[in-house]
Amino acid sequence: MTVMMKRIIVIILFLSNPLIIQAIDRGYPFVIFDGKIYKVSEEHVNEEQIGRKIGQVTSNPDKNGHYYGNASNYYPIGTIYYEIKQMKTNEGISVYYDDKYMKAVFIEKAPFHWKNWFIPSMPYLFLLSLVVLYVVREEYRKQVLKKSSF
What we know:
single chain; 2 domains; six-stranded antiparallel beta sheet
């Protein structure tokens, strides 16, 4: 086995380790926004303190309990996030649910999930594949024309 193959195997084992990429298991409601985990408290935010809409829940845990994107362990998909005036979003946000604005406080960064990178990059990967197909097709066409000109 070559050194390169050994390195690839070590990288695959490292990335598949459940201690590295772990499910978020918490005993309280939380939301994930912009790669950050916010603990949702029972503290209400007055409507006058609510700023602009900044996002919404786009996913719930997958079958393995992992989260990606703007996710929540409690709130359904479509639950809206708002900024709180006079508070930076890296400190806290507001979650609108059941006709109430609930305060959510930043606690930590969310663990890495491959879908956080892969899903937003899909359009670019698609365009790249079209460019590669075009280049391959043109090269093939040039070779065919060369052969037929003899």
